Amino acid sequence: MSRTASQQEGEIIRDFLSIADLLEQPQLARIYAYLYREGEATVSELIDVLDLSQGTAYTYVNQLTDTGVLTPTTDTQPQRYAAVEIKLTLTVSDDREYTISPALIAAVARRTTDDTIDSYINRHGVHGLATALSHTLAREHGETTHRLVADDLDISELEAEVILQALRPVVHEHFSVEDSGASLADVADAENLDV
């Protein structure tokens, strides 16, 4: 029996909403990002590594499993879970395209531990963070500068540099990039500055 078009549309919308949850709830994003990076883990390991309460961890893992972004990798207890690769491209009007990927989810996950990313999302939204992440990748490839990014995003050069530096570890974690130079911390160390 084949699925109807409405069933397929329903599944697509369910998948989209699951991904939206990851972008709206940093704790869910942290679990997904950890499992995507590490491969697989038990709920107990997630509790220890991510400093989650037992109830919260089980609730989040069940939610992510029910929505299809995590999958159990074993049938035995304790179950191990792995992240399902996500790549969703949204086109808004004719000129704006956003790609929701594990890298973007990892950047959102850092919101709970990185004040720069949290502040940037508060001011510019997740879509602004997605754009900044794309610029960070381009910068790490040597294709742009913080000044050009600032002009493109209509933000100060300082804010551009700060968000580019905050997203740099995400880019290096998720993309194949040769080191293009010193980080802000390296420059501050060389100049004996306190950042």
Structure explained in plain terms:
The chain has 195 residues and is mainly alpha-helical. It contains 9 helices and 5 strands. The protein has helices at 5-24, 26-38, 43-50, 54-66, 102-109, 115-140, 146-153, 157-174, 184-190, and strands at residues 41-42, 70-72, 80-83, 88-92, 96-100. The strands form 2 sheets. The chain has a 3-stranded antiparallel sheet. A two-stranded antiparallel ribbon has the order 4-5. Helix 1 crosses helix 2. The longest helix is centred in the middle third of the chain and has 26 residues, at 115-140.
Strand content: 5-15%
Topology order in helix (H) and strand (E) letters: HHEHHEEEEHHHHH
Largest sheet: 3 strands, antiparallel
For the largest sheet, list the strands in their spatial order.
1-3-2
Q: Please count the beta strands (DSSP E, at least 2 residues each).
A: 5
Short description:
The chain is mainly α and 195 residues long. The chain has nine helices and five strands. Helix 2 packs across helix 5, helix 3 crosses helix 4 and helix 5 runs antiparallel to helix 6.
What are the main properties of this structure?
about 200 residues, mainly alpha, three-stranded antiparallel beta sheet, two-stranded antiparallel sheet, 9 helices, about 10% strand, globular
